[in-house]
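CHAIN AND CONFORMATION:
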Amino acid sequence: MIDYFGERKGLADRPLLVFRHPNNASLARCGQFLFNQVRELLPAAERATFICHSAGGLVFRYYAERLGGGFERAVLLGVPNGGSNLTELKFLIDVVQFVGGLRWGIDAAITQAGRRGAGGRSAWTCNRTAVSPLPGP
């Protein structure tokens, strides 16, 4: 990818920011992290092009839709906009971690779960003109 940008005259002078979101946090936390990084590193986010893959596209969508993050265009590749069967596994992992945290008391377990962004679920749908959240179950 870096070689591709370097070989293109129109892209060679543009900065390239590689953002690897932490996989152990909620989309909301990752989206906020992306928002903070873009604000800190890019002087004109409204000129930025985002190329996103898999869950990175969900993080970008949170950044753009919920936080109003600026961008010029976005390319989303292999983004699970319709959800994933792995959601149930993530929920089970969250439950196991929460139960393990109960040894320090209920307040500590709740605080830790909130810091990790555990337990959050979202479903999304996309059509040609808009991307919007689906109502919860």
Q: What stands out?
A: Residues 2-79 form one domain. The chain has two domains: 2-79, 81-137. The longest strand covers residues 49-53.
